[in-house]
Each structure stands twice: as C-alpha cells, then as structure tokens.
Design a protein that fits this description.
Distance between the termini: 142 Å
Radius of gyration: 45 Å
Oligomer: single chain
Number of strands: 0
Helix content: over 70%
Number of helices: 5
Structural class: mainly alpha
Strand content: under 5%
Order of helices and strands: HHHHH
Largest sheet: none
Length: 192
C-alpha cells in the first residue's frame, strides 16, 4: 500500500504540475494575444492616417503606440474637418479685415487729396493776391516777402503724408516732424 500511496501522491503532483503548466501557457497565449491589436476597418483618409502615425509616436512602447493609432483612426477625419473649417473661418476673417482696412485707407487718402486740392487752390489765390500787391508796390523796393503761405501749406502736406504713411506709436512723433519738414520746404518753395 505504501507504493500505491506514493503513486497517488506522484500522480497528484504531476497533475498539479500539468495544470500549472497548462494555466501558464494559457496565460501567455492570452497575454500575447492582447498585444495583437487589430487595425480597425474604418475608411480613413491618407492625411488622417499620417496624422495618426505622428500621434502614435508619442507612445512609450509598440503596444501603446498601436492603441493610440487605432483610437486616433476613429475620430481623426472629423477632427481634421473641424480644424480645416476653423482655419478657413480664420482666413476669411483675416481677408475681411484686410478689405476693411484697405477701404478705410482709401477713404483717408481721398480725404487728404481733397484737402490738398483745397490748399492748392488757396495757394493760387494767395499768389494772385500777392502778385496784385507786388504790382501795386512796384515802385517801392521793400522786401516784404514772407513765406507764411508756403509754410502753412507745406506743414499741412507734410503732416498729412506722414500720418498716412505711419502706423502705431510712430505716428505721434512722425506727424510733427513731417509738419516741420513740410513747412521748411514750403517756405523755400514760396520764396522765403
């Protein structure tokens, strides 16, 4: 009987070892099978696949990279479409602002041109009056040639030109400088 008992113990040990081996192989098989993630059968654009590949590079290992890639494939085309729509809205908004700025600049330029034409007409009028006065004082040799008209017109033109050609903080120092330079040039042109 002792031999039968030994045999029973050996059979139990072998059976236990057999079960443990079988359980270990099964666990390895399941574990290895879990690393095999099947690619979804979604229809994804090539652009979407490229974007998902970039995102999957963030994975710490091949398993997480594959998971990131597969999860990305599910929503990438919708995300890209949303991103494209947002960028298109930004583009059209930028275009609208540029058009509004162009219209505003054109209106400012037209206003400056009309003011310039008025100033030119006043200058011509002043020149004619000056000529009449010079003819009246022809006998006198007094030099009463002042350059007020030229200085005023040149200052306004210089200020207008610098105002239309500068932006931001530069405008506030450039306008007085343009007015000063314009008045000096206007005085010289007017004969002062």
């Amino acid at each position: 009987m002792p031999q039968t008992k030994n045999k029973e113990v050996m059979d139990k040990k072998n059976f236990s070892l057999y079960l443990l081996t079988l359980f270990g192989i099964g666990a390895l098989t399941v574990g290895c099978g879990a690393t095999k993630v099947e690619e979804t059968s979604l229809k994804v654009s090539d652009r979407g696949k490229q974007e998902c590949l970039k995102r999957s590079d963030l994975g710490k290992n091949a398993f997480t990279a594959k998971q990131i890639y597969n999860e990305c494939l599910e929503t990438i085309d919708a995300s890209l479409a949303q991103k494209d729509a947002y960028e298109a809205d930004l583009y059209y908004e930028r275009q609208r602002k540029e058009e509004a700025l162009k219209k505003k600049k054109t209106a400012e330029n037209q206003k400056l041109k009309s003011e310039l034409n008025k100033l030119k007409a006043e200058k011509e009028k002043l020149k004619q009056e000056k000529k009449i006065l010079a003819d009246a004082k022809q006998d006198k040799n007094i030099d009463d040639n002042d350059c007020k008209e030229g200085s005023i017109i040149g200052g306004v033109l210089g200020a207008g030109l610098t105002m239309s050609s500068t932006r931001g903080k530069d405008r506030w120092w450039a306008v007085p400088l343009g007015a000063t330079a314009g008045s000096l040039v206007g005085c010289q042109i007017d004969g002062g």
